[in-house]
Amino acid sequence: MSATGIVRFISDSEIGYVSNSSSNDPINGNAVISEMSLTDLKAVPVVAVKGDVMDVAWSPDRSSVAYLLYTEVPDAMNQLWLKTGSAPPRALTPPIPLFGRDGSANDQILVRFSPDGKYLLMVDTYVAGAAPASPDQAIVQVRTADGSLAFVPPSALGTSGSKLGPSITMAAWARRSDRLYYRDSDGVHTWDPPSTVGTMASGLTWYSPTVSADDRYVAYVRTVGDNALTGQPYVEIRDLASNAVRDLSGIRAAPWFLSGSLLLEAEYGPNPQQGPGPQYVQTGSNFVFNLTTNVETPIPVVINPIDSWPR
Description:
By secondary structure, the protein is mainly β. Helices cover about 0% and strands about 50% of the residues. The protein has strands spanning about 1-10, 15-20, 30-35, 45-50, 50-60, 65-70, 75-85, 90, 95, 110-115, 120-125, 140-145, 150, 160, 165, 170-175, 180-185, 185-190, 195-200, 205-210, 215-225, 235-240, 245, 250-255, 260-270, 280-290, 295-300. Strands 5, 6, 7, 8 and 9 form a 5-stranded antiparallel beta sheet that branches. A 4-stranded antiparallel beta sheet has the order 1-2-3-4, with no helix packed on it. Strand 18 (about 185-190) and strand 19 form a beta hairpin. The chain is globular. The mean pLDDT is about 90.
């Protein structure tokens, strides 16, 4: 079995990860979701499935594991699953068909529990296309811990994308509450359970949002011209209390909050490869920006975070 690159902290002493019997063709391989203690490095299988696990998340109390599965049985489809305790996994959504849309810089695959574990978020832009046949096939949806459908953004119920990519995407939980952030063609919105929907910033197109540990700031990527493939990226930080915004200097992207005041960011530069695709790529240099001192410090290692602890 080969690792897929999906690794999650379950606690400060245990991780979860996904392996697959076929690294070259994972959709036709056998995937295993396992837990491992960092003390003895003993792996314990939790779920074995046929297909490719696109993302996985453990509930904060470690009682449940949720995962998005991509299979070709009988046809290409994605489906959200939940395993709680010793019970067998159960499907939370019907199979959601893929429409053959080209990949996009707007794509996001995400399975995440809210900080208190009351809600489960799924973002699956790979199935963006025609309007969903039912709300439980929407590309962005929130479910309660027991799997019941709790919220679907209104914009996820219409035509959700085209060959250019999804129209609703780039969601993130707050760190200390059940507030959800997401964007669509009108801007960035919020959802506060059980039913309040608001607009945080009209017309804002953001990428890779990350919320600070104290919920004071959100950092995200914008691009000159708002075209993620051709535009020059930069990082913007928004104070969620005052709505004040500041742009960080330099060509930066891939922000990741390490704490309430420390933000990891990667330097980007022109792509040396000519042709289609992103015009800016990582240079290999990384920095930590201190929001308290406004000082950016280079770090001597290349870091592309998969997960972090504490949350």
